[in-house]
ELMO3 protein
Amino acid sequence: MPPPKDVVKIAIQMVGAIPQLIELQQTKPLASVLKDVCDAWSLPNAERYALQYVDGRQTYITESNRGEIKNGSILRLTTSPDQEAERLYSGIQSNNADVKTDSLKKLASLSQDVTFAQEFINRNGLKQIFYIVEEGNDTGEMLAHTLKAFMELMEHDFVSWETLSAAFIKKIVSYVNMNAVDASVQQLSLSILENMVPTSCLLFELVKKEVTLDRLLTHLQVTNAQLQLKAMALLIALLLAATDAERRDMMDYLREKNIRQFIHKNIIHSSEPLGDEMAHYLYVLQSVSLNLCERRMRTSMDPYSQEQRELLQSLRQTAFESESEAPGSNFSTERRRSLCAKEFRKLGFMNNSNPAEDLRRAPPGLLALDNMVYFSRHTPNAYSRFVLENSSREDKHECPFARSSIQLTLILCEILHVGEPCSETAQAFYPMFFGQDHFFEELFCICIQLVNKTWKEMRATQEDFDKVLQVVREQITRTLSLKPTSLELFKTRVNALNYSEILKLRQTERLHQEETLAVPVLELRERLKPELLELIRQQRLLHLCEGTLFRKISSRRRQDKLWYCRLSPNHKVLHYGDVEEGVDSPPIESLPDKIPVADMKMLLMGKECPHTKEKSSGKQNKDVLELAFSIVYDVEEYCLNFIAPTRYEFCLWTDGLNVLLGKEMTSERMQTDLDVLLSMELKLRLLDLENISIPDTPPPVPKPPSNLNFCYDFSHAEQ
């Protein structure tokens, strides 16, 4: 008979004593449990003791978290959190440097526990930490432990960041601005400032004023990867907290300092592999930079704006040396207007008498005009060639420059997600973005020439305009998916992907689809499916056995804390636990927490997960919802919550967990993998039938022969 759910069998250790094996009654008050444990070891004053996990983060057991204790857990009898907080509070005030350093080191470790943190803060412990930082001159190990303890205590959100004193903040800023400081101190100081920036406008302004962009750029140029990462994190926090005008000024300054070229050379192409966190920050920097185009993209052209009209006229004047503006010309106003309208028509404007009307649509708004002007000024030869070449073509066969530019700008905005909010988890950035100033405009210059090239290859007319731009969109997206490292490489590849190549790719995809729709092939597919689904199930379980590194993401910021989860080789237990940065694949023995697969009841995804409900807000990021899943275990009381690092990991983990629960795999990745495997298997099976058309119905069975005289008689063979 199984034990009742409110009883768990555990071991309790104490230094110098034989461990106790007890059955913990979850309905029994914790104080009574401690009294029984202390009595067994003849220890007085049970109220001075507490239970604590031996492994992992060594969390204290309280009435609120005791439900998480599992069968087989190993606990330790230790000093209670209030006693430990009192001891360390005294220790960090000691005049003995060794005692003080050891106390601060222990404080930094224990402050991860919410119960201890509450006790220490209730004793005004933060005030003592402020005193050590504000009054102390140490810049080594002791200070590093102090700042680490402060970070851990603030992580629990018992105290607002806005309550920090000006003296404390200035001291933290000084560690960032000093040169002769321990690298770990600078890393922690940068992390503290990064946490302060989003909490209030006053703190943002203070940090922005005290920590200059030049100083952050200096930190970005060091060889210490962690210091580089923390500097980038603070830079991103400042950019995200700034107003649009401030952000634009900051990005202009960073451009002057050639930050893109530095990132391209020293971070993206460094000898060290790029971590997930840095990849995310580069994605955000790219997104913030591209979103500077949003204002122009959403602004329609004002026909009464002198500046905008001059930009529009400059397009015409660059392309045509108009007779109406030649020195000494005495054309009438009507004649001059007629010539201008004719030239605007040659430029490809739909409304040639009033071309400003073409730019009233927003998006792409004025961004399209900016791109056209940039193209005409920075590549005047290519611009003149485009316009004049199409001016001399037959009617209906000319490629309209202005109309194409407007539509192309819109396509580029959609592909590059201009105007969309930054994702909290995305890491997809384009390496070539950091290799080029004026990236968007330079990309436009390449792509508008691609439009003209594709137009000629398709022998298009005005009626084919949408088809041509659809092909161009496909050329751009297919090339960007290859992640070219420079615009030159992008240009080479996108031009190589001409219209005939696109047709070949489409035809291959279409033929593949058609050949897989024949009735006999569909029947074969169905027969192969069970075997291939089993193969996918095995692959998913193997992936769970290898394990994955997950990040803890709070509502305030991306956390640095990591945890690892993996399935045991016998597929019976899920092991998980916190790990340090840089640990790729911890051994299963080092993961202290476990969930028996037999106790798993349900898999929740997206909005159903408890951790997405807790953090739900008006601006809940869509991508976090798409990556969230939870395992419900025991009697539907407890959940293990995940936020996958990528959509790929989300699909593999949810599929694997569904397999463990005996349910169908439901992810889109499963369908993709099944299609790929079916396609490969079908091609192998149908190799002998190449170039032979497969009939929809099987051929008729012939009638039996009238006699069997054709049968060979073996009895006469040996005579």
User: Anything to note?
Assistant: Residues 143 and 404 are 61 Å apart (CA to CA). Confidence is low (pLDDT under 50) at residues 616-620. The chain has four domains: 7-79, 83-270, 298-320+335-510, 530-671. The chain is about 50% helix and 10% strand.
